[in-house]
Amino acid sequence: MECKTKKLALLGFGNAGQAFAKLLMEKHEEIIEKYGFDVVVTAVATNSKGNLVCEDGIDLHKALSDIDEFGRFMDEKNITEADTMKIVSEADYDVLVEMTPLNIFTGQPAISHIETAFSRGKDVITANKGPVAWKFSQLNKTARDNNLKFYYETTVMDGTPVFNLVDKTLMMAKVTEVSGILNSTTNFILEELAKGAEYEDIMSRGRRMGFIEADSAMDIEGYDAAAKITALLNVLMDADITPDMVDRKGIEDITVEDIKAADKRGNVIKLLCKGVRDEKGNVKASVKPEEVPKNHMLASIDSTTSVVSITTDLMKTVSIIEHEPEIEQTAYGVFGDLLRVLSE
Amino acid sequence: MECKTKKLALLGFGNAGQAFAKLLMEKHEEIIEKYGFDVVVTAVATNSKGNLVCEDGIDLHKALSDIDEFGRFMDEKNITEADTMKIVSEADYDVLVEMTPLNIFTGQPAISHIETAFSRGKDVITANKGPVAWKFSQLNKTARDNNLKFYYETTVMDGTPVFNLVDKTLMMAKVTEVSGILNSTTNFILEELAKGAEYEDIMSRGRRMGFIEADSAMDIEGYDAAAKITALLNVLMDADITPDMVDRKGIEDITVEDIKAADKRGNVIKLLCKGVRDEKGNVKASVKPEEVPKNHMLASIDSTTSVVSITTDLMKTVSIIEHEPEIEQTAYGVFGDLLRVLSE
Q1: Which one, A231, B99, B277, B309, has least CB within 10 Å?
Q2: Other C-beta atoms lying within 10 Å of the C-beta of residue B80
Q3: Do A168 and B169 touch (CB under 8 A)?
Q4: Ramachandran region of residue A271, left (φ > 0), alpha (ψ -120 to 50) or beta?
Q5: Which helix (H) or strand (E) holds B126?
Q6: Which chain A residues have a beta carbon less than 8 Å from that of B31?
Q7: Apex CA A12: angle with CA A9 and CA A17, to 5°?
Q8: Given A6, A122, A135, A228, which residue is catalytic?
Q9: Residue A228 catalytic?
């Protein structure tokens, strides 16, 4: 088979980016065999580890080991002073892989990165949900109008097929409702509170285990869940909404007493995300703590496990569960999108 | 768009076949628009309603209303004395849609229908799990060798993507384990027993509600579940096994006392299907009643709801749940396979 080259520019090289790089190295030969593409990384942009550019392909093995050993890139020949936007605008690549940190209130600068890549005729994969939550319909239109690929499976539930599930396996079915449990921090806190743990204890344990970020307000107040349900609804139901339009309530006011009262009713409290079309045809989204019966599937979704339920006109409701993902599952989401780029 | 004709031969025209015919009529124009094919049914073979053949396309509306009114086809011009195998061998069609009743112990005559269609260079969709459980690897090889399409999504969990989930959305991931709850009759019986209902009562109620067939032994003794896990493992793990190789135990010996004892341990009893590769590389399948904790996802899978959990090397475990399907969801499985035939 003739083997073509596909050049990737990686924006962000944190845990997920590094896991993706490892997967790329591991599967390099298999990708050539199955898809006929020699995939190389020609640029890596980071905030704190330096930036690399190399038209012939960066030595990922060295990049990873340098980060392990020194905390930054040491490949002097390929280190560049160019910043992220300059790399997006000028580097030689075919596919932009957007994995920069999320700004949940604007989706920037990821949106600008993607717009710039599109303006240069590049395909885009984003693991950053900001662009899909804040500007999906415009970005998607630009991609379609210019015959470019734009994939974002990782933005909700890592590599678990959610967008691809509908697109690739529920053909011609029309999505009428989407719901789910999509934030593991709140899920973990509610679960531990129900077990009788103290709030402060849960937070410090969660931080130690890596479930809870230093600034947990984005999770606890429901902003993260709101961005995810917005992304789902924009893609699956053409909702054309932004996260600030979500009827959002976090778990900040849930007390141990609330949980005990729910327990007496045979229920547990979960932070549920929902989206349905109202009678005017507009999609209405909400994120709210709600009681669910203990024997309901939703009650079994614990800690980092998450679920999306998708209702369509032709297949009623189908739910998909991701069980206790690790960083490799995030990397697989990006990897799956890359295979989609290579196969279409 | 140029519009080509795609001719279907339907074997079997029971509830699922009729629902599929309705869906075909409803979506006829949309299929032309999206896929560029005018889909017509040129043959229908049944056991008790007569057989129809018409090269220009059978009037499905009349076929359905005749069955409603008279219980059999009345379209004199197109009624044929040819039997099912003669239709498979001689009728003019592009895609065979195999929906005849299952023989769970042999997979016949469905296997012969499919082999004959392949020998004539026809694509095949089967909703009958017999062929996938009893002869998948040979049938699949024949299809591949002759560049023919062979799809079977409906054979497990109706139109819920299971085979397509792996094939279309978990690219390059290798399936290492499959498990699930796949038989609604046993699921319903165990659930009702746990609620304190009497066995005889459950059976008569189940029969009235249509959950339980007149001859329920195939379900209760685990044969149906064994055929389903075999089909899953043959396709997803290249198991090359037959249903008689499944370590099978039904729920026939489960007593109310067993259920009460499990309840005291905080568990419920479910009929679980499983398949894993042993140390020699062979896939071992089992169907057995097992205890699962009440707060486990599996415990929440009630009555006609079913679940498959798929573990892969790259995505850990992903579960997909079909919630309380009706006959339209079976029809959608066949319909989805048809769209796949049209789109590839």
Answers
A1: B277
A2: 18
A3: yes
A4: beta
A5: strand B123-126
A6: 172
A7: 85
A8: A228
A9: yes
C-beta of residue B225 within 8 angstroms of C-beta of residue B190: no
From the list A27, A37, A30, A20, the residue with the least C-alpha distance to A341 is A37
Set of chain A residues whose Cβ sits within 8 Å of the Cβ of B318: 160-161, 320-323
- Which tokens in the block code for residue A177? 């409702």
What residue of B is the nearest CA neighbor of A329? Answer: B315
Q: What is the DSSP string of A226-277?
A: HHHHHHHHHHHS-----GGGSEE--STT--HHHHHHHHHTTEEEEEEEEEEE
Interface of chain A against chain B, CB under 8 Å? 23, 27, 30-31, 34, 159-161, 164-165, 168-173, 294-297, 299-301, 309, 314-326, 328-329, 332, 335-336, 339-340, 343
**How far does CA A130 lie from the centroid of its chain?**
9
Residues of A in contact with B299 (CB under 8 A): 295, 300
Residue-level length of chain B: 344
Record the pTM: 0.96
Instruction: Return all residues near B340 (Cβ < 8 A) that are at least 6 apart.
Output: A171, B149, B151, B164
HSE toward the beta carbon, residue A68, CA cutoff 13 A: 9
Judge: B321–A320 Cβ closer than 8 Å, yes or no. Answer: yes
| Best of A151, A296, A332 to mutate (most B CBs within 10 Å, chain B) | A332
Q: Positive or negative, the Cα torsion across A130, A135, A137, A140?
A: negative
Q: Inspect the interface and report whether the beta carbons of A314 and B328 lie closer than 8 Å.
A: yes
Cα atoms in the Cβ-side hemisphere of radius 13 Å centred on A301: 29
CA distance A99 to A89: 16
The rounded distance, in Å, linking the Cα atoms of A79 and A74 is 8
Instruction: Write out the two tokens for A24.
Output: 């790329």
- Taking only the tens of pLDDT, chain A with its 344 residues reads 578 999 999 999 999 999 999 999 999 999 999 999 999 999 999 999 999 999 999 999 999 999 999 999 999 999 999 999 999 999 999 999 999 999 999 999 999 999 999 999 999 999 999 999 999 999 999 999 999 999 999 999 999 999 999 999 999 999 999 999 999 999 999 999 998 888 889 988 888 887 787 778 899 999 999 999 999 999 999 999 999 999 999 999 999 999 999 999 999 999 999 999 999 999 999 999 999 999 999 999 998 999 999 999 999 999 999 999 999 999 999 999 999 999 98
Cβ-contact A152, A235 below 8 angstroms = yes
